[in-house]
Fold this protein.
Amino acid sequence: MALTRRQFLTTVGGGTLGAVIAAACGIPEDELFVQSPAEMPEDMVTGLDNWYATLSHGFPTSEGVVVRVMEGRAKKVEGNVDYPINRGRHSARSEAMLQDLYNPDRIKGPMARVGERGDGNWEEIGWSDAISRVVYQLEQVSAARQNREVVLATGPMVSHAGVVVDKFINAYRGTHIGYEPLENTNLRTVMKNLFGQDRLPDFDIENTNYLLSFGADFLNTWISPVRYMRGYGEFRQGDRERGTLVHIDSRFSMTSANADENVFVKPGREGLLALSMIQVIVSSGLGDPVAARDITGGGAVDLEQWAPENVAEATGVSAEKIKHIAEQFATHRPALAIGGGSAGAHTNGLFNLTAIYSLNYLVGAVNAPGGLIFNPAPATDDLADAEANLKVGSAADWREVIRAMTDGDVKVLMTDGSDPMYGLPGALGLREASYNVPFIFSFASQLDDTTAMSDLVLPAHTSLEEWGTDVPAAGPGHQVVGFQQPVVRPFFEGRGEELGTKSMSDTLMAIAGKLGIDLGLDATDIKGVVENAARALFNENRGSVRADDFRAFWAGVLQRGGWWDTDSVANAGTVTTKQLPANAPAPEFAGPAGSEGSFHLVPFSSTSMGEGQGAHLPWLQATPDPLTSATWQTWVEINHKVAKLRDIREGDVVRVVSAFGGDGITAIAYPHPGVPTDVVSIPLGQGHKAGGRYAEGRGGNALSILADRLDDETGALAWAATRVTIEKVGDWKRLPKFENNNPDFARDENQRIIKITPTDS
Amino acid sequence: MALLGVLGVTSLVGLAAVVFILLFVISAWLGRPLSVFGYNEGPDQPIAFPHTTHAGSVEDGGIGLDCTFCHRNVTEGAAATVPSVGLCMTCHAVVGDGLAEVEKLREYSAEGTAIDWIRVHRVPDHVRFNHEAHISFFSDQDEILPSAVCATCHGDVATMEKVRQVEPLKMGNCVDCHRDNDAPTDCTTCHY
């Protein structure tokens, strides 16, 4: 219908009159309130913001953050410029802490199961009732006090919450198992074997000149991405010569996209490739001669078998390319080789990482600027003990725990929000085994997959409501103790003493108190424990915060978000042998062979949701994947030519089936030219059975179809060793993504700007 | 009567209504709307707080509190701020037994809930108004107490049983006053 001039004028006139009348009536009374809060501390003023420093427990490395608080409400998270790990930067995961605090699906009070386990029917009970139930169950166990009767699964934490957990579980001679979804067991073992280090090192990306990265998606999700990204910024655009990044991977990751050169390697052959580079460097005399003698055992190891010509076929990388990269690496010092992620997640993962990190010896990158920087032991004795006692479970350790559960040897299973039932491969059978455990309780703040299978929930505070400390999983090369303080009152405080949430450490200490166990903590709550820790640091009288009296010191560490001592450095450890393995084990894969049209499955962590830890936060769900720009779903990346051959188009729903995990999972196909032809990759993070309205029943969980193949030596989960088949299910769904929703610009037909060479290398 | 004959009663009533509505609209456009049908009276608050009792002079039966006693931030920051329930209770824990409105306040305090007062004075979201700057300017210039400045915009609140808005608080108000006092009238003075 065309609009006539008269209609237009009538509408405009009427609208104007209406607007004027509406304006004359003023703002509706109930539209705007001015609130008198019940209580208002002196330092808190309506309309003025306060910023408090605290920690974001990232997964896996924590970040220092400052939180904007107005009228007692947390409004915004920013990076803490002082904190040595992230130095002012922060991740989307930290940003979304607010949604963890205000999440509509948070558990609001202690709950007991009604009906069958896993049915999802709960009854709210009071805290005193809940704690007496736990005490009753633990009293049954304490009569026998046998090993393994109590199992406590938490995230891997070196912190004072970890100290409390450690002391509590020791009192029961139970098992504390640290759960890490994509475990770094192999990496830690290599650090121990090759460099004599008990913890992960820092990588001095900022000062390196040539960075060779094997499978480590360090710009996106690997270990401490915010720190590495910051270093990478200096590496590329700092006040220095521009560094070169060569990334070697079996999938096209965010780090691949940023690399000067991206090299595809056949899955599990990263170690062989590294050995070949060692051969080139040693035989051409480019490397450090002492190191060359050490790692070859004075010629005992036959390097020639790995000459580029001999490994080109197995690795899928041409001999010329291997030679070129090896020479560049050896001649552009300081150079640094790092490896991890899928490179260490094969049945020969330990070997792969050993070969990769040995490269660093040849270029003098061990505990040197621009290379690996080792981290010293935690600053206080109790944290050092907690670190020493922390057992981060490998898949083999989990297998043992699960066997004990199946045999009925485990009487009580406790867990925090780390959710092993979601993240452990279905083939390990934790869910099935848990039915043989008489009592399961959880400290989670969300009803995650593991908590949904428990008998009792003792809901925990979120990070912004809690006291704590943290020693970063990969430190910055010197001692750091991050301090976490509550920036708001607990959100459910208004529900009274008997309901609402409590800190996990406080609950454990209360339980210990009822049981008459002395934890030897010299404090009644976690705040006291943290204060004692600060006192120990105050007495050291060194580092970033020093003061004449303890109150000033305490204020200082809380204002800065922690304490660190840049002078505390680690020495190179004592190593018995640096010699390379005599031969290169081949990776083994589980599932249908390649001849049956199957693919290597290379899962990868979601930038925002990690391995599922952030799936209940809508901001993280909606954060686009940096490469595909996809959100809110599970997709499967497949080579575009292979997809065409199989008549798979973007949006086709496909079923991904391995020999494990039953019917497999469904995902939306995303063909793109960066994927090698024999690989498919799937982001992790979705496919939760529980976890609230945002996480539940969305997408598929690639972890559930993984084979329970382990590294031969360390027992670490070989999470990249599964082969899968793909079939269309005949359905089509639009992949929710940002890119290509509008028509492309004119194509660069002659490839004058960028030459795409997908999988020829 | 002749006019009545010509137009008819209905038309005359209609005309009167239109004139009235126009008067209402024009008055609202230029300043405060006509005080009819409850307009311009100020809203009923969750607790009928009498400024007369608290801020009114002792001669008038009040206790003569200074404005800044409760609106603590008015000389320090952008927002004047309303006091917390806790501040009210410093007196009313013991004062005012048996008064219905005080009992309401004690209930809020006991339950630890906030009071949602209905906002009376408001400038649009695109305007930044800072109390502190205005209070200090006038109290310095006229050498008067900060609390004596409040009435410039808010009227004599001490005599209001129920707080209502007396000045239109429209841009014309602001600009007039800024001109009279040689204050800047750049857009970005208030809109930033």
Notes: The radius of gyration of chain B is 22 Å. Chain B has three domains: 1-40, 50-82+124-192, 83-116. Chain B touches chain A at residues 21, 24-25, 27-29, 33, 39, 43, 72-73, 76-79, 81-88, 108-109, 112-119, 122 (CB under 8 Å).
